[in-house]
Design brief:
Transf_Hexapept/Carb_Anhydrase, globular, Gamma carbonic anhydrase family protein, mainly beta, single chain, 178 residues, UDP N-Acetylglucosamine Acyltransferase, domain 1, Trimer_LpxA-like_sf
Length: 178
Amino acid sequence: MTSLNSYNGITPKLGKGVFIEPSAVLYGDIELGDDASVWPLVAARGDVNYIRIGARSNIQDGTVLHVTRKSKARPDGLPLIIGDDVTIGHKAMLHACTVGNRVLVGMGCIILDGAVVGDDVIIGAGSLVPPGKRLESGHLYVGSPVKQARPLTEAEKAFLPESADNYVRLKNEYLQQT
């Protein structure tokens, strides 16, 4: 088995400069933007719907990414969409949700079906974003269930693309060693 696996004849598609650590496993209809990275033990299944991961986004160790199938209640099901310059912390679980651009999802977070995370958001470690919850752009969210804590500072907003850039540099170092 390789990291990239077909499902129903569809194999993940990678942009330029993408890094997939060999222990990560990706199935089916998944597309990664340029300079994205997927780290050890990530499991991503684009089997019953699709996953899109934006440019320069990083999916860290032990994260699970999945989608929702089509049903009578949801004729189109729900995909998983992750924007550009997103950092998904270790052991997060994202299921059929939408994450905007320049977002930090803390370690161990769970984001559930139909949740929508705006741009420029930080979600604290261990937080739970319930199904259908909308997180407004420009804020820090914490807790289980998640609650808006406060607006982000300018320094925090500046850190979000910096975090993504740090992982672009790191994945480039890994790519040079292979």
